[in-house]
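Q: Is it fine to ask for two folds in a single conversation?
A: Yes, each is treated on its own. Send the first.
Q: Here.
A: Result:
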Amino acid sequence: MSSLHDFATWEPLLRLLPTTDARTPAAPGGYAAGSISHGSWSVPVPRRLPRPGRAMQVSDMQEELDAVTRVQAALTEAGRADVAFVAEISASGRAALHLFDLGPAVDPGIGSAHPGALLLVEGAVPEPWRRLPENFPGARSDPSADPALLEHTLRERMPDAIGATEEEIAATEARLGVTLPEEIKALYRVTRANWEDWGDDYEKAERVFDAVGFELGSLHGLHVAEVPHRHLRWEHGALQAAVTAPEAAVQDLVGSPGWIVIGDTGGGDRIAVDLTPGPRGHLGQIIVLDHEQSIGADLYAESLTDLVLDPGRDWYSGRSRDQLPYVARVHHQSLRSVEDAAHPDLEVLSLGVWDGEPFSLASVVGLPRLRTLSAYPGTLADPLQIAGLTELEFLELPPEDWRVLLDAGAVPRGLSAAAIRAYSDRDPRVIMALANEILALWDRPLITETVIDGTL
């Protein structure tokens, strides 16, 4: 048996759990719950506050760190990415530790022992991650694109740069499976932007970046901004929409085979040349993929020539992600009725914090594109109305509403993923069991539980 299931592995952590609160392990019916992964952990260990005027230091939480590191080492040994736990400890020191292996069909929760999204269909991704670029006939380069002027300007700014050969450029095109715009070829004929060419001379690298207007990537580092590079949890991605407006210069996509990354803003935002522009865009325009966004990109310049000749520009468009009528968020500070959200193009309906009467779904039943429903506790008047949402691929509900659907045999079978919205005061063991009931409907791998007994 793996050391992950050895009581001794967990004993240092169990000894740190609080014993004075009504909801802690030593209280009647009490428990403590948490989760640990290789890169983070969430455990209910009280921490000593540093004295006023001093920031918290590692030494202030050394016992917790040592205890967690012990479990992380066991995760590595077991080939596991994470573990969720529930601990019960009697006043005499007798302990029962419940360990949960979420398995391949369940994402870990965020900062809690509760499960994350349940993947009901192997390999499924939210709809925006399946969206392919449209072809807009007649897309042309902007008149400002001038490869000869671009090359001349860059050679003046970087007279000692080492350029790429035609063979190197052709090899890059073959590797990417695209024909690079003439501007991009002109750029790399002047400089191939290899760090090896600069050695440790950071000033030389800075001169290249200043000449171009951004942190230029090397020719051999060019890559396609593919969809998997912008991962987002199912329960978050399903609440997004990818919709390209008729006046858009850039298509609203997660990724595109025509977005060729050529550099960086210096702040983690990728710069790409766009070979699949939007309806009002230009072939070869320069765009920025914001690292804080998972969908879409912003227009940086109409052409690379335009950017190099006028580098002091701001790429951020300030576009709003409020996407009515495609995404509707109904709560006390937004739309205040489901009727206001109903629209033939509605894709996502999110029912948030609400202190009024629960909502009826009658006005959105039968909508042809409604693929996501997320509801806070107490917001649905009749969960069985969900049966009329025939196009759902993702459903997020509180435990009570899932119970209604399960007992009635009314869980929509067209779902690709699901989630249980439960607050931290809900016993993870109950939520894990509920998750297994949902997974079983799709014959998916279940969450497994191992109970370890010991004495502190």
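Q: Second one now.
A: Result:
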Amino acid sequence: MYTSNNEGLLNNYAAEPAMYYAEYPSTEQQQRYAFQGAAAILLVSLLVLTAFGVS
């Protein structure tokens, strides 16, 4: 979106998106986040232990 003034100068400012507030995650989402965190910790732990075992 480009606009110009009387002198022909461009004003190409970014369009600001509509603001909204984030909603607190539901209990189901919180449980899913906890499961994903536990899976990530397990994966990283196995990778580190494998690296130590191979070296």
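Q: Anything structural to flag on that second result?
A: Two points. The chain is about 50% helix and 5% strand. The beta strands are 3-4, 10-11.
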